[in-house]
Structure formats: C-alpha cells, structure tokens
User: What shape does this take?
Amino acid sequence: MREKLTSADSGDPLAVGVDIGGTAIKAALVGVRGDLLESFHEPSPRTASALRDFVHSVLKSAKVPVRGIGIGCKGIIDADSSRVKSLPGDLHFLEGQLLSEVIAAGDLPVCAENDARTALIAEVLWGAAKGRRNVVMLTLGTGVGGAVLVDGAILHGAGGAAGHLGHVTVDPRGGLCICGNYGCLETLFSSRAIESDYWAHMHRAAPVKLSMGSTGQPPDTKAIFNAAAEGDECARYVVDRALEYLGAALVSFLHTFDPEIFILGGNIAAAGPQLLAAIQDKITRRTKILLGREIPIVFQKTVGYGGVAGAAGLVFLEQGLLTI
Ligand SMILES: [Zn+2]
Assistant: This one.
C-alpha cells in the first residue's frame, strides 16, 4: 500500500527509511527535516527476495535521487556491517545475512540498526528529545524494547546487544521469559503480560467486567486500561501491579544512565497521561536523592512512523547531513 503525504521541498536531501517488523514492513521517503513524503507498508516479507522487491519498489517511486537506504530491524543488528546477528521468529530467514547484500541497491549506501534504536534516533533528531545527547527510550508493545543514547552515541556494547531494557529482572521469582531469564520487565509489563494476567484472573473466576472474544481471545490491553479507568476491580489490580513493575524498572534505568529525558514509546504508551500519572511521583521520590533533579518522562512524538524516520536518519547521520 502506498500513501502520498506531503510534497517535497525541492532540494532537501532524501533517504529511504525501512522498518522491518514481525507482522508488517513499512517504508517511507524521508526528508532531512524528518518529513515523510510518501509511505508504504505491507505484511512482513517471508523471504529475502520479497524484502528486496519491496525496497526496490519504494526506490522506483522516488522522483529524485535518494542519499541512501536506512533499515531498522528487530533483533541484534551489527550496525557497522549491516549483518543480522540474531533474529528469532518469523524473520529468522534474515539471520546471518548482510542487509546491504539482501537489498542489493548497487552503489546506494545501506545503513542498518536495531528498530528500537532507530525509534530513539527519530526522537533525538526530530521528536521529544531533539537536541539531547543523553536519552533512554523504552518501547512498550507486545514485547518491551529499549535503546540508550549516552553522550551522543548509541550504546551498542561489546556484542551489539546493549540496551535490551525489556530484559532487566524486576522479579527474581518471576516467570520464564522468551530470553531465558526469569521475571524480566517484558514478562510483567507488556501487552502480552497484561492480557495474560487479566485472562488468568478470568480463568480463576475473579470478579471481572470484560469477557472473552468470540474466538476465545482475552480482552486486549487497551480494553483492560479502559476497564481499569471505569472501575473494573480486576483490571485496576492488573494495571496497578504492572505499573509497579514498570516504575521499578524506570527508577533503575534513571539511576543507571542519568539521562536528560526518558521516552516511553510503543502502542501501550498510547494509553497516555494515565500511565504516567500513576507512577511519576513515586519515580521522582525514588530517584531525587541520587540524581538531584526530576527527570522528565515523556511520550514518543513520532508515533507510528519513528521506525522509518529514524532508519532514514541513519543515512543522514552517516553522511554528516545531521549530527547528534
Ligand atoms: Zn527476558
């Protein structure tokens, strides 16, 4: 699917940003000011050639030359080589591959990075953290992703896996996580965690106001947040408990990274002020002795397009058209 957004400012450098997710792949022609000129999306590719065809169809739609292709992808991506080091699940076919080779765009430069990091880069270049050099971002969705900017540089770590903030232990006695650890933040504050906790209460015949869907699926996170606001005791309990874990993790991240600003992104963050109101005071109280100030916790500005914009941002940064 193709959507025309704004007309290009003539002369502004353009790059293609691509965001490869587990269910959908998105792309856009992005201007150096963070404007999306045209965007594209379709279900996630299941083969390398399908990925290549999608990106080439986007390239063909560009009326003027682009500076390069930036790719944000789930998993552990080696930003120096564009190699996909680890990518379990439906996109496993990309594991071990160089994205620059898969895309095969000739002389056009190809940059790649983990998708949580591209979302952070979009916020730093054009969004809620514009101009900041110490920023932490958490993406709250089906899972929990994270990315960290320290003194102007994205934190990669020795093996490229730094910043997996969703896999910090918040309950040492907690359940087994997809990563092999126990009690990770992702097992306690993610849409899967919140939905399965509500379902467990339904299954135990606790007093709940929501019901199962026609095909037996539990209520989704949005419905559970709404029910909590409307006085469903069980939803209230589930949400409060999840927020307690999120708050504990946020305190640890603030103490660890001492950022200027903390960004919450992803589709759960769309629950908005309600999410923060419940935990902001506690977090401030628990961090002000060590940090000496209240660190703003804000929501992602580039909702829905941060991944593609930030991926294009990789190209602009690489070529010195923008700096952090
Ligand atoms: Zn984990």
